[in-house]
Amino acid sequence: MFTFRVRPENGDEFEVKASTRDVLTWEKTTKGNKSYVDLLREPNLVDYYKICHLAAWRQQLFTGSLKEFEEQHDIDLSTGDEREEQDAEPDPTQQARSSES
Q1: Where are the residues of the annotated region Disordered (predicted)?
Q2: Which of 6, 13, 55, 64 is a plausible cystine mate for 18, CB 3.0–4.6 Å?
Q3: Looking at the whole model, is its pTM more than 0.85?
Q4: Element (H, E) at 49
């Protein structure tokens, strides 16, 4: 469902894949009866951090509390495709744009 690139303050970056089980747990434990549809309509960092923490905890990638996770980690919300574009080397077969174009 969601893939997060997690950057701890001290340590190596790792990837967390949140599944439907993690989103289901988030729905059941979030005040205000939020749903997956609500998350898609109005995404926010609080909910993404909760889902990422749930997935990391389930996968035993992080065993601390949500508060500790929030204080010690940054999460990258870009999609895999967006990350590939950002990380990609320039195509040497394409001419660079000139300022005269």
Answers
A1: 72-101
A2: 55
A3: no
A4: helix 45-58
Question: CA-CA distance, 82 to 98, in Å (whole number)?
Answer: 25
d(CA 41, CA 56): 24
Sheet holding 73-76, edge to edge: 14-18, 2-8, 73-76
Round to whole Å and give the CA distance between 8 and 76: 11
57 with 6: CB under 8 angstroms?
no
In b/e form, how buried is each residue of 50-86, taking b as 16+ CB within 10 angstroms?
A: bbbbbbbbeeeebeeeeeebbeebebeeeeeeeeeee
Per-residue pLDDT, averaged over 24-50, amounts to: 93
Q: Choose among 75, 80, 68: nearest CA to 47.
A: 75
Contacts of 62 (CB under 8 A, 6+ apart): 53, 56, 69, 73
